[in-house]
Amino acid sequence: GAGVSQSPRYKVAKRGQDVALRCDPISGHVSLFWYQQALGQGPEFLTYFQNEAQLDKSGLPSDRFFAERPEGSVSTLKIQRTQQEDSAVYLCASSLGTGWANYGYTFGSGTRLTVV
Amino acid sequence: SQQGEEDPQALSIQEGENATMNCSYKTSINNLQWYRQNSGRGLVHLILIRSNEREKHSGRLRVTLDTSKKSSSLLITASRAADTASYFCATSSGGGADGLTFGKGTHLIIQP
């Protein structure tokens, strides 16, 4: 597609519920990133994929967070047993290249997760 | 953790005036990027400046980078109401596997 698409746009989950957030990157984009943005803050890095390989997951806050990109295109961020502190906007970004010297990211509009 | 810190945190100016936002960072970088975020939307990439560059222009945007002071500034000239948004600087330490590190952002309001 023309841009990075994320779904759902909004998600309300009861505490303890599992959620799955989807990201459709721009076709052909090799790099895919997930970010978490708390209210009033800048985005914080969660994890990075190069094609189907998850090369960096150092930003995932706990083992309740899991991300995959099995065919190197669509990615899913899964949060198990959601907690209130998981409430945030989850942003997906993709990039054509693998080196940051020459490329900027294209971000999706995000999924706003509210845990009640 | 967030590396960059923008200041001011919030800025309100009249339409037509110039807006300047500053960003400081802590570690060595490969490049620095500025993004805009409208309320409830994703981030839009504005401009990228490499560590060996000092100034870059794109339309009404001017970015400077001072690696000795670990700081950057974003100037928006002849501001418009549509420029109202949050602006974030983000740094890259290089390589393909690391993500961008964002600051907390400057919220810019352009008064018509």
Structure description:
- The complex is a heterodimer of chains A (116) and B (112).
- Chain A has strands spanning 5-7, 10-13, 19-24, 31-37, 44-50, 53-56, 65-68, 75-79, 88-95, 106-107, 111-115.
- Chain A is mainly beta and 116 residues long.
- The model of chain A has no long low-confidence stretch (mean pLDDT 92).
- Chain B is mostly beta strands and 112 residues long.
- Chain B is globular and about 40 Å long.
- The model of chain B has no long low-confidence stretch (mean pLDDT 90).
- Chain A binds chain B through residues 4, 6, 31, 33, 35, 40-45, 48, 50, 55-56, 59, 91, 93, 97-110, 112, and chain B through 1-2, 4, 30-31, 33, 35, 40-45, 48, 50, 88, 90, 92, 94-105.
Gross geometry of chain A: globular
Q: Number of DSSP helices of chain B?
A: 0
Structural class of chain A: mainly beta
**Global outline of chain B:** globular
Through-space gap between termini of chain A? 33 Å
Strand content of chain A: over 45%
Distance between the termini of chain B: 36 Å
Structural class of chain B: mainly beta
Q: Would you count the extended β strands of chain B for me? A: 11
Biggest sheet descriptor of chain B: 6 strands, mixed
* Largest β sheet strand count, sense and barrel closure of chain A: 7 strands, mixed
Radius of gyration of chain B: 13 Å
Oligomer: heterodimer
Series of H and E elements of chain A: EEEEEEEEEEE
* Poorly predicted runs of 5 or more residues of chain B: none
Task: Evaluate the radius of gyration of chain A.
Answer: 13 Å
What is the H/E string of chain B? EEEEEEEEEEE
